[in-house]
Amino acid sequence: MKEIHIDTITSEVEKLCIDACCNIGDDVYNSLKKAMDMEESPSGLGILHQLIENIEISRRDVTPICQDTGMAVFFLELGQDIHITSGYLYDAINEGVRRGYTKGYLRKSVVLSGIDRINTMDNTPAIIHTSIVPGDKLKITFAPKGFGSENMSAIKMLKPSDGIKGIKDFVFETVNNAGSNPCPPIILGIGLGGTFEKCALLSKQALLRNLDEENPDPNLALLEKEILNEVNNLGIGPQGLGGRVTCLGVSILSYPTHIAGMPVAVNIQCHASRHKEIIL
Amino acid sequence: MAQHILSSPFDYDLSSVNIGDSVLLKGYIYTGRDAAHKRLYELASENKPLPVELKNQAIYYVGPCPAKPGHIIGPCGPTTSGRVDKYTPLLLDMGLKVMIGKGFRSKEVVDAMIKNSSIYLAAVGGAGSLIAKCVKESSVVAFEDLGTEAIYRLYVENLPTIVAIDTKGNNLYVEGIKKYKR
C-alpha cells in the first residue's frame, strides 16, 4: 500500500494556495484578450484592459489577482490504496491553508460563525470535498472562492416539465439578478440533476474545467454555447456597466436525477477563476 | 464621456460629473467595509463622535490583502457596495461625498445621494494588484481590531474609476445595460 506522509500534503497545499491566487491560468488570460475583440463598450474595453494588466502585475510581483483570496475549497480524489501516515488528512490540508495564506500574504476572510462573525485569522477551516477513487494516487484540487460571486449563486428545484427553457430562464434570471456584483465577465458553473446538495456541488465542480476545454457531451456542449451567447446578449458587460462581454464561458455537469425532479444550480464565478491541482 | 481628475477632499461641486465619465482619483481616502460601517453607523446613531471626519471625504469599500514586504498595501480592489447600503444614507447626511465600490445601490442610497449631491464611483472588481499600485501611503486610523476590515487612510494617485451614479441619481448600471441589451 502506498504511503503519503501528512507533511507532504501540508507543504503541497501551502504552495497551491499561493500559486492559485497569484498565477491565474492562461485560459482566463487568453479569454480576456479575446474578449477585447468582441467588446463594443468603450468603458468595457478599458475595464478588460485593466483586468489583463492586473493579471500581468500579479504574476510578476507574485501578489494575489484579487484581494478576496476566498474561502479555501478543495476537491480531493483519494485512491483507495493509499495510506495517509502520521496524522489526519483534513488537519494536514488545514495546516497547509494556514501556512499558505500567511506566507503568501493572502487575505484571511473566514469567520467562525455566521452569527458572531469572529475572524479565525488563518482562513481555516477549509471546505473539503473528498471522493474515494480506484488506485493509489491523491489528487488535490484547490479552488479558492471569493464571495462577490458566491453570494450571487443560486439553486432551484425545477419540475421535469420545465425542460431546457426552464433551465435557461433560471440561468438568465440568476445572472440578471447578479448584475455587476460578481465582477463580470463571469464564468458560469451549472449543475443539472442529482439531489439538492449534489446539484450545488456539481455546479462548483463544473468551474474546475478550463475555459479552452470542450464539454465531452455534445448535447451539453451545445447547451453551453447557447447559454453563453444568450447571456452575452443581456448587455450586462464588464463590471455590469453595460457591454457585450458578460460571460467568458459556461460549463455544465450533469448527473442522473429522480423521476419527479430537475434540480438546477448556478455557481457564478468572477473572472478571477482560480484553480490549481497536484497529483501525489 | 468626459475624463476628470478629481482630488479629495471634495469641497467643490460635483454636479458636472456624469455617469460613464472616467475619473482618476487623487488624495486621501478612507477604506471601510461591512464591519467598519456597522460601527460607524452605531456611533452616529447614538450621536457619539466618529473616529474619522466624513465631511467632503470619500469611502472606498475594500478589505485589502496584507502588504508584502516592500509593498505599501496588498491587492485592494473594491468589494460589493450593496452590503453597506443599510448604513450609507446616514453617512451621506453626515457629509460623505464620494463612494468607491462595485455593484448596485439601493433606492434609499440613491435618494440620499441626490439630496447630498454625492457621487458613486465604480472601481474595477478583481483588479486588486493594479489598484494597489495607485496607493502611495496607507495607515490604519480606526478599528484596528477588525483586521482587513479596519478603516485605513490611503493616499491614492490616478486611481481609475468610472462614474456609476451621479449627483442627479442617473445610474450607469441601469443605463449601460439598457444600451447593450439585445
From TrEMBL, chain A:
Has the keyword Magnesium been applied to this entry? no
Q: What InterPro entries does this protein's entry cite?
A: Class-I_Fumarase/Tartrate_DH, Fe-S_hydro-lyase_TtdA-typ_cat
What is the designated name of this protein? L(+)-tartrate dehydratase subunit alpha
UniProt keyword terms in alphabetical order: 4Fe-4S, Iron, Iron-sulfur, Lyase, Metal-binding
Asked if the keyword 4Fe-4S belongs to this entry, the reply reads: yes
- Family to which the UniProt record says this protein belongs: Belongs to the class-I fumarase family.
Q: Which residue intervals define the domain Fe-S hydro-lyase tartrate dehydratase alpha-type catalytic in the entry? A: 11-278
Which NCBIfam families does this entry report, sorted A to Z?
Answer: PRK06246.1, ttdA_fumA_fumB
* Top-rank lineage group of the source organism: Bacteria
Say which species the protein is native to.
Oxobacter pfennigii
Question: Which residues does UniProt call coiled coil?
Answer: none
Question: What GO molecular function annotation could you give as one example from this UniProt entry?
Answer: 4 iron, 4 sulfur cluster binding
A Pfam entry, by short name: Fumerase
EC numbers: 4.2.1.32
UniProtKB/TrEMBL annotation, chain B:
Where does this protein come from, organism-wise?
Answer: Oxobacter pfennigii
User: Which family is this protein grouped under?
Assistant: Belongs to the class-I fumarase family.
Spell out the molecular function terms from Gene Ontology. Answer: fumarate hydratase activity
Q: Tell me where in this chain the Fe-S hydro-lyase tartrate dehydratase beta-type catalytic domain is found.
A: 13-174
**Which lineage ranks, top first, belong to the organism behind this chain?**
Bacteria, Bacillati, Bacillota, Clostridia, Eubacteriales
Q: Write down what this protein is called.
A: Fumarate hydratase class I, anaerobic
Give the E.C. number(s): 4.2.1.2
Enzyme's top EC category: lyase
- Is the Zinc keyword given for this protein? no
Show the NCBIfam families listed in the entry. Answer: PRK06842.1, ttdB_fumA_fumB
Question: By its UniProt entry, which Pfam families does this protein fall under?
Answer: Fumerase_C
InterPro entries referenced in this protein's UniProt entry, alphabetically: Fe-S_hydro-lyase_TtdB-typ_cat, Fe-S_hydroAse_TtdB_cat_sf
What keywords does the record list, in alphabetical order? Lyase
**Residue ranges that the Swiss-Prot or TrEMBL entry lists as coiled coil:** none
Q: Coding gene?
A: fumB
